[in-house]
């Protein structure tokens, strides 16, 4: 009977050691290894980026283009004016514009302005709006597009939402 | 009698022995767990040291950038960044032109909802109209047209719903999923946008228009039978 108790106690000790000592330590080591790998990847990316940057030549054209597409600071006023002006030129009714700022690239510190525009117009004006946004010198990239068309005698009416990205530093 | 006593003692001895062995095994396991746990604690401390030194390297890398150097690096980073973004860009104007060329222009199929993502995943809902005498055949033609175009891949219609109106006319409605693959025309549009405004003659609509015309011409050329 005593021996049975001893075996039971030893089994309990084993369970306790495994649950509260070995297993948490194993999980922590795994987490720390992942963290270290991420940091090492960050260093390696940074080194790669720096060596890549050294190879890149900046011309006068690049300077002008970069000044337009990645200006210093968040130019929300300019973005708002620009987009509403493009919409106005294409006879597009804008119902809603939302702005959001996110980190575009953690290594270089470039930030992304995420702009969502909802509105309505006819099919031809909508395609013309896309054309003007995509070819604007400020540099807009349409990430996602969503339209809902309805046909009537007056033509095709398009309700749309565009998710656009623009960049600044 | 002696034999009987001997037989009764044997299982008791076996039980005692097996209990003893189990205890020894458990003690060994406990010791092994403690040793392995100790090793893990040591490993944990070592990893924490490595993480701290790696973080120091990252901080040193950041702070080692001289201010004047930073300006130069910043421009180069910007150039790399914008080139990466541009290379991923989908020109939806180009996609719409290709759509117009692909969908039969006979008024037999009407598109309603269209969604597109930067990964090139496109989804739209379509329905046949009154002009469609054989809606299944027109739907099959639509599928065939998409399959013929190299820039549209993996076209898939999960389900086709049929409705019949009071006049007995049948209408089909369905959602189409397709992937858009960028081609050299998208690249040309990227290259064209890689010019600052001072080098563009009025955001060079003529050149872009030429590209869009080229899309139309190329699509017609790729399908001469359909155009005849």
> What does the overall shape of chain B look like?
flat
Helix and strand sequence of chain A: HHHEEHEE
**Could you tell me the radius of gyration of chain A in angstroms?**
28 Å
* CATH homology superfamily of the largest domain in chain A: Ribosomal protein S6/Translation elongation factor EF1B
Biggest sheet architecture of chain B:
5 strands, antiparallel
Count of separate DSSP helical elements of chain A:
4
- Fill in the CATH topology of the domain at 92-227 in chain B: Gyrase A, domain 2
How would you characterize this protein structure?
The complex is a heterodimer of chains A (169) and B (228). With 169 residues, chain A is of the alpha+beta class. Chain A has 4 helices and 4 strands, in the order H-H-H-E-E-H-E-E. Chain A is elongated, with a radius of gyration of 28 Å. Chain A starts with a helix and ends with a strand. With 228 residues, chain B is α+β, with helices and mostly antiparallel strands. In chain B, strands 1, 2, 3, 4 and 5 form a 5-stranded antiparallel sheet that branches. In chain B, a hairpin with a 4-residue loop joins strand 1 (109-116) and strand 2 (121-128). The interface between A and B is large, with 70 and 69 residues.
Topology of this protein?
The complex is a heterodimer of chains A (169) and B (228).
Chain A: H1 2-55, H2 60-69, H3 76-89, E1 93-105, E2 110-122, H4 123-134, E3 141-152, E4 155-168
Antiparallel strand pairs in A: 1-2, 2-4, 3-4
Chain B: H1 2-63, H2 67-88, H3 92-102, E1 109-116, E2 121-128, H4 135-148, E3 152-156, E4 160-164, E5 170-180, H5 184-193, H6 205-222, H7 224-227
Summarize the structure.
Chain A is an alpha+beta fold.
Key words describing this protein structure:
heterodimer; A: 169 residues; alpha+beta; Alpha-Beta Plaits; 2 domains; four-stranded antiparallel sheet; 53% helix; 31% strand; elongated; B: 228 residues; Gyrase A, domain 2; five-stranded antiparallel sheet; 7 helices; 5 strands; 62% helix; flat; disordered C terminus
